[in-house]
Amino acid sequence: MIRSTMKGLSRCMWVVAVAAALAGCSDAEHPPEELSTASPKGGRASAPPAAPAPSWDTLQARVQARLDSVDTALRQVRALTRAEQRALRRDVNRVQTARARAMGINPTAEIDPLVASGQLVPLEDSTRLWVLRDLDYSVPYVTPSTHAMLVEIGERFQTELDSLGLPPIRLVVTSVLRSSAMQAKLRRSNPNAARGVSAHQYGTTLDVAYRRFAPPAPSVDTVTYGAPPQLEPQLRQLQDSLFVETGTQRSAELQAVLGRVLQKMRDEGKLLVMMERAQTVYHMTVAKKLQPRPVALAR
Q1: Which pLDDT tens digit goes with each residue over 9-57?
Q2: CA–CA separation, 28 vs 22, rounded Å?
Q3: What percent of the residues of the chain are helix, what percent strand, and what percent coil, each to the nearest 5?
Q4: Which of 83, 158, 251, 299 is deepest in the core (most CB within 10 A)?
Q5: How far is Cα 16 from Cα 257, in angstroms, rounded to an integer?
Q6: Domain residues of the chain, as ranges?
């Protein structure tokens, strides 16, 4: 499935861009003779010829091999059992809201003063651990402990992936802090949204998708190594689109890896979690004060 999709993408979406890029590479790959190092006859040693840049077929094959290895490794992951699913559904909204009220901000307060006082911190759009989806009904602010919780979740998730021989696939955060007005607006479009006060109003709670995952951050990814600069954007775009497709096809396995991380952290008293049915997210609330943990931004 992935192989056939890749062939379709490479033939239909990338041929024109790649051909243009390769045309622009010709001078770099074959420098004029007058620019080369003088011959030994002139008393100077010739520089060894530069290694030719990988062809588009070679780069495409590199991406394909990587995606095949990801798919093969994820096939070995056991999906969540019914008992594990039940355990991940124990912390219902009432339970999480009670903890959020005890741990979080005053839901009627203005955001700017809370940020200025350090009670709220911004949640980064794109890091080496997660990406933040465009938010329609929430704003990207959390308490410092909630931020530390998400960093630890991302680190432990990627540690588990590494133990399986997988690249550092990132989480997708879908909802963060909501005002009462945002919660009411969401309720009008989503009947599954909590009625009354939501845990999301305290800065302690966020949702992370379990059917959608993000490609590794460019700063930790080496698939474009050696590629001509003109081809890097097309190559990365191709790889990222296929990573998303692989994550969707193997979402049950990735959901299990993430779910087991969350269950361990729940057992440690660090968070409360609800694996929602209507929305394909893990809804979670920080359960104790956590020390700040730095996170590297995606580059």
Answers
A1: 443 443 334 334 433 443 333 333 332 334 445 555 565 666 677 787 8
A2: 10
A3: 50, 10, 40
A4: 158
A5: 39
A6: 2-23+55-286
